[in-house]
Design brief:
single chain, 222 residues, mainly alpha, 11 helices
Length: 222
């Protein structure tokens, strides 16, 4: 089996926990509290700004033109999602300019982006792109699974449609192919580190939704 197939099966229990999380089940049936979704979109906006930078770094470190183009395009899409999808939801859910300016990353958001930044700054290109992949792949799986069960009408349908869109799935498959290609060329030690990066960022995917559902804040507000 390929690297991606193997590691995807390895994190199956975590993927099941993500799909079963009440944030996503309630989002699908339209009952998710607007306050939890507002927390999510503010944190996701902060996350995507940093994720776009990590994609740009991956593009700069990529060994060939195909990878450079793919990660450059991914960085552009991250910015577009932030500007288009989030802005529409900011309006719908009463997020004003002051709230956006004053937003600070939650513990889950800062942990996730900080881990990606550490991969980008101190680890190999192979580990970085393995850590980048779950944000594509987990969201694609989530979109595909919850779209058929989502109620209509649904205030969250635009979010669901974005990540269930076939074009997002195609982008996910292209990134998987790049990760598999990098793993084929890597040593056993690097492949093990790639697997750990993938597991870690998949954990952060769960933590991000869990944090949003509970509207988690830092233990001591400053």
């Amino acid at each position: 089996m390929s690297f991606c197939t193997t590691i995807w099966e390895d994190v199956s229990p975590l993927r099941s926990a993500i799909i079963a999380h009440p944030f996503l089940s309630e989002l699908a049936d339209g009952t998710l509290a607007p306050e939890s979704f507002r927390h999510y979109i503010l944190q996701d906006s902060l996350y995507l700004a940093e994720y776009g930078r990590m994609l740009a770094i991956a593009a700069a470190r990529a060994p060939d033109a195909a990878a450079r183009l793919e990660f450059s395009d991914g960085a552009k899409v991250a910015v577009q999602v932030e500007e288009v999808l989030h802005q529409s939801y900011f309006t719908q859910f009463g997020v004003d300019a002051d709230m956006v300016r004053s937003a600070r990353p939650s513990l889950a958001c800062l942990g996730y982006t900080g881990y990606l930044a550490t991969l980008a700054a101190t680890r190999s290109y192979e580990e970085l792109i393995a850590g980048i992949l779950p944000c594509f792949w987990v969201y694609w799986e989530v979109g595909c699974i919850i779209k058929p069960r989502a109620v209509t009408p649904n205030r969250y349908s635009a979010w669901i449609d974005t990540y269930a869109d076939p074009s997002f799935g195609e982008a996910t498959q292209r990134v998987c192919a790049l990760v598999d290609r990098a793993a084929e060329r890597a040593s056993a030690d690097i492949r093990a580190k790639m697997a750990e990066a993938f597991r870690m960022t998949t954990r952060f995917e769960y933590m991000f939704w869990d944090s949003a559902y509970h509207r988690a804040d830092w233990p001591i507000a400053l």
